[in-house]
Amino acid sequence: MSANYTTNKQLIQPANGTYNDIWDQPVNADWAAIDTCFGGSVTITVTGLASGSYTLSLGQYQPPNIIITGTQSGNYAFNLPSGVGGQWSVYNDTSGPYTVAFGSVGGSFLTLSQGLRTLCICDGTNMQLSDNAFATTASASTLATADANAQSYATTAQSNAESYAAAQAAAAQSAAESYAASLITSGSNTNGVWVKLPGGQILQWGLVGGQSSSPLTVTLPIPFATCQSINITCIGQFGSFDVSSVTGVTNNFVINFGASNTPFSWSAFGK
């Protein structure tokens, strides 16, 4: 029976007066083809297929989803028949170190990235990416510049991170030192100098002028609750001496000594 077929998907176009009483055949065939064109899928395997260029059959290019799979034995080019246009999603699921291309007989083609799905469109001659607004072909110099920039950014980021870490460490140390310093109190008066440590321990010291008679009472700058030790350093010849009970010292301590007018320094430690 006389009929024409559409260019891109080969849908049946019956001639006038044909398919009498069997019109359902072309109609149903067209609807089945249209359904395939909207959502069909086909798998093409390259395992055992010699490398080369292959023109797709109607059953292979009519579906919009094409999966190319298998183990490569060389480079492949799968082409649409000349004049066939449309849009396809092609998944290169092959393995091996070769290329797979998708194009049009007598026209241009695209190399499909392995392991990825590519959306392609063909005007009947030229095969292109469906959306190539962001696709660029980088030259060697462009790639070198990008690599240099990436390395520079990485170096700067590392330097900034190290500087930040050093600044944070310095700030933490300064804060710790400031906090420790804030826990230490000190003072002085005519009797001497005192420093109170964070644990509550008190260190006191001073200088006392000598006198000719014994005993000598030394008044502390601040009182102890408990004195743990007293040390005396003679400045010049002082003579023998002894200190009254250390454990009972609170506001002062008493020194017994041989007669001398020589000054001496003292230090005491306690709480």
Shape, principal axes of CA atoms: rod-shaped
- Overall pLDDT: 87
**Record field, number of beta strands:** 19
Largest sheet: 5 strands, mixed
Strand order of the largest sheet: 3-5-7-10-11
Helicity level = 10-25%
What's the order of the H and E elements? EEHEEHEEEEEEEHEEEEEEEE
Uncertain runs are none
Portion in beta strands:
35-45%
Give the CA-CA distance, first to last residue. Answer: 119 Å
How would you concisely characterize the structure shown here?
By secondary structure, the chain is α+β, with helices and mostly antiparallel strands. The protein is rod-shaped.
Any overview of this molecule?
This protein has helices at residues 24-39, 58-61, 140-183; strands at residues 3-5, 12-14, 41-45, 52-55, 65-71, 76-80, 85-95, 100-104, 109-111, 117-123, 127-129, 185-189, 192-196, 202-208, 216-219, 227-234, 241-243, 252-257, 264-270. The protein has 271 residues and is α+β, with helices and mostly antiparallel strands. The protein is rod-shaped. The mean pLDDT is 87. 24% of the residues lie in helices and 37% in strands. Among the domains are: 40-129; 187-270, Sandwich (Immunoglobulin-like). It is built from three helices and 19 strands. The strands form five sheets. Strands 3-5-7-10-11 form a five-stranded mixed sheet. Strands 12-13-14-19-16 form a five-stranded antiparallel sheet. It has a four-stranded mixed sheet with strand order 4-6-8-9, with no helix packed on it.
